[in-house]
Amino acid sequence: MSLVQYDLELFRSINDLGKEYAFLNPAAIFMAEYTMFLLGLGLIVYWFTRTKQNRMMVIQAVAAFVIAEVFASVAGHFFSHQQPFAVLPDVNQLIQHSIDNSFPSDHTILFFSMCFSFLFVRKREGWLWVLLALCVGISRILVGVHYPVDVVVGALLGILSACIAYLVIPQLSFVASLLSVYEKVERRFLPSKSKSTDLS
Predict the structure, then answer these.
(1) Among 17, 96, 108, 157, which is least packed by CB within 10 angstroms?
(2) What CATH number does domain 13-187 carry, 1.10.357, 1.10.8, 1.10.1660, 1.20.144?
(3) For 192, which DSSP code?
(4) Which residues in 130-158 are b (16+ Cβ under 10 Å) and which e?
(5) pLDDT per residue over 38-54, tens digit each?
């Protein structure tokens, strides 16, 4: 069996779950469409804990996503295909999506790059973020907008980029300098915390 055939069969196995078990569909839609708001809220909460560790983690997460998107843009020039619902019959399509190159999955890139950035710094709850990323990746197949290969490659690019950002960003002196300048300005408008609290 070729890789393309295996990818197609795996897509059918996952996407057909929504036909057999309709109760999965609302959860799949929520995971595929709305969990990015939860991720955004997480970034805001971590940033406004006002600890340097958490703020550097947020910077690393954003940098990891940018790096991963650059990798994805390059990968998309070597391989491309349209969304499953655009080319396959009888797809369980649960959300609307424009037709373009679905390789790799941008949602999966976003979640894996950021959630692994959280894991590297905040190990206690980091695995919950990684579990969320995994659920989002699977949900994108369940709702019919991505093949498994889109999700797997997106996840690998996200993890690789999170590793690069974790190793490189803290070593860049200008990042620390910019953060210090921001915090000086912030202290003019927000009261200083009486006691520094590190949640890690």
Answers:
(1) 96
(2) 1.20.144
(3) P
(4) bebbbbbbbbbbbbbbbbbbbbbbbbbbb
(5) 999 999 999 999 899 99
